[in-house]
Fold each of these.
Amino acid sequence: MTADTSPSESSDRLRAKLVATLRERGSIRSPAVAAAFTNVPREKFAPEVTLSAAYSAYDVIVTKRDAGGEAISSVSAPWLQAEMLEAARLERGARALEIGSGGCNAALISEIVGPDGLVVTVDIDPYVTERAARFLAETGYPHVKVVLGDAEHAAEPYGPYDAILVTAGAWDCPWGHLLAPGGRMVVPLRFASITRSLTFMRDGDRLIGQNPTVCGFVPIQGAGAHAEQEAVLAGGAVKLTIDGGPALDTAALDRALAGARTELWTTVTVGNGEPFDTLHLWLATVTNTFGWIWPNPDHDRDLISPAIRWFCPALITPDSFAYLTIRDAHSNDEAKERRHRFGAHGHGRHGADLVQQLAEHVATWDRDRRNGPGPDFTLDPADAAVPAPAVGRIFTKRHTQLVMSWPA
Ligand SMILES: C[S@@+](CC[C@H](N)C(=O)[O-])C[C@H]1O[C@@H](n2cnc3c(N)ncnc32)[C@H](O)[C@@H]1O
């Protein structure tokens, strides 16, 4: 019997399974997106991985790294592709722009917009465009227009578009003018070292953002690239990153980490696996010292105990820092869900102040924001006069101002 074991049969089965998983978690909501995932053979866009890896719902497939080993191109994880396709509300016959290529997502878009639609996919890297064009031709999508260039300008001649899907982490958003009336633009936007995929619709000169989704993407390169500050401590065991602010003094921060630690515990608790991503947005609203601390998993030195294992919220000044930590919150009721108590660890000259501030911000978030609606997002041109939100923050970029405002 070969019917069950031939590669294409397996691919069909894996596709059906993937669609079922993405429907179940709510990432696929429409028949059009389900049909696209049913029809596109993902493995043909990632020949470097196994068939089952190509159909993992949650995993990104890295297809290129830079000289330092950082991922610079990938096939995005299916759950996120599905979320972004649903958010774009693509219709048959639509004109769509994808920024950041690979081929797989362009094929999904092409399935949805159909033969009367237009799909333009732009990538800055000739290695990526060559592969994407080849894979798209081989899989039956030769009509997708693959453009080599920096998306900051390269997509201009083909607009306007009913949908723009940005698939690289963008610090700024220079594509609003390419959006047709009624169109939607889905962008993983980076601000204060946080990335949220936002779905923007035009309202005059302003773009209104909805549906902030936690996500991660390889960073945009070229004219739109934006460097954050970084301090590598303890011989690479720990890294601090922050967007903007006064210059970090790496030697002082290194001494701070090696020195005494201040500890403060809050009464705020969190359940196992319970998300608390609005805390990050709140911290980025109330302090411009918000950044991240990253323990290096390849170093087994137990120098810090962050609340999140890979990267964790921190308040960072040139010579001191404090980060969020957790410990078990003991409960008398054994049957109760296991919970953890938030605390803060501080290092350096201002470590004690910073733990105090962090603990207060966590308490305010818990009391006033945790269970309420998150912030609204709007994008205005960089030169527009934008009133400061009552509770919020304006992030000024090169082309735009991103306004994050919480209900007053
Ligand atoms: C996550 S990958 C794209 C994934 C792809 N859409 C897929 O099918 O899943 C991000 C891509 O953005 C590209 N990129 C980064 N900066 C760019 C820029 N300024 N203009 C165009 N492409 C860019 C990178 O070369 C990389 O291939």
Amino acid sequence: MAGWCTIQYLSPGKIIKLQDRLLRNFIRNQIPYNPFYYKLFKKNKINFSGIKTTEDLKKLPFTAKEDIAPTEKQPEKSLDFVLQPNKQLISRYASLNKKIKIIFNKNQLYHEYKPCHIHFTTGRTANATPVFYTAYDMQRLEESGRRMINVLDVSANDIVINAFPYAPHLAFWQTFYAAKGTNLLCLHTGGGKILGTDKIIKSIEGMKANCLAGMPGYLYHLIRTAKERKSNFRNLNLVVFGGERVAPGLRDKVKSDLASAGSENPRVLSTYAFTEGKAAWVECNEESGYHLYPDFEFIEVVDKNGERVNEGEKGEIVYTSLDWRGSVFLRYKTGDITKGLYYEKCHHCGRTLPRIDAAIERSSEYREFALTKIKGSFVNLNAFFSIMAHKGIEEWQVEIRKKNNDPYEIDELVVYVAPKKKANFEKLKNELKNKIIAETEVTPAIVKAELKALLQKLGMETELKEKRIVDNRKKI
Ligand SMILES: [Zn+2]
């Protein structure tokens, strides 16, 4: 297979050919080992050799989150997505060369197919879904890490601080393997909950760290705290967000705080990933979009009717694994809406990799919250992330509750706001109120909160993810 040096500059025509070939081999040689897709192909009367190109993928129905997520009745549903070859399947489906290799090399079989690592999805109320990696996949996780470091233009002597929460989640481990794969000096702090913000700030200063990676909400908190303490972040020139969507306006806020902490012209870039995709993608520049790995996955963007849209048109991101082992997915609907997918050469770095527009509405992140009924009308809670990016706000939390905590009472929408020191709260309050009414048609109560108390409510030092939107309505 062509190496990364070649792949990142392939012409669009060659990328299509490469993906067609990888998909064809993957479906013919691997998918028969996947219990879920084995059944799906049979049920829809599709031949494994009938999918020859990425165009042919259209014959396949989509895979939804509900197909994968474990339920009370089917707690082991996600295991059906793991490749599970057995002697019978191998002798029936493996191509001749491959068959000989596998049967006579048990170590190879273990390397390729035995799960050895798990990540979980981060849903709050739904049962977390496990995604399995084999040793073969771990090499690819490390390779995607090397690619990220390459696209981010981090140099070999840079010092990295990993502030992602220590958890069986892709963000932490992708960062771990990116550093390992490139031999970078990296302190894996485990985030606020493990090492604690104080020690992380001291480590950035003491180690003269150049690069800091973590969740956007937490890094904003960490950098603001460093600014208040007059810490010296002079060497920090790159901040990499991951793990969740970056609210509009957050980059600018972080940059301004970084400047106050002594960092000159810092780059603030973000990554995009979902657990099922098994690797993360990164921007080379703030406006570049996320650079994909065309030999690892095939991404298509579809409209509401499931039809593929044209280059640069808005739609849902749909993922297909190419040549992974362990858990694999075909035409998986992520629930994430992007402004577009681009195949033209990146204006910033010259790479020809396909790119996903960075403007992504991560409906899957707050799936259970994304559209909720408040006072009888549907409210898109994602709207708060852009409204609350207001310059006058230090921190915020939205609480949906019942009046007097009585389940039969009407809904109340309470927005807690810790304003910036110089902000005029009354003016801010009115502005927010008007914006929220315009976006959601619900009149909120806007309550001024002390920063320290609000940080505690958000769980900045105690939770894996801060509690930005809380639904405290008791179900009857
Ligand atoms: Zn680029």
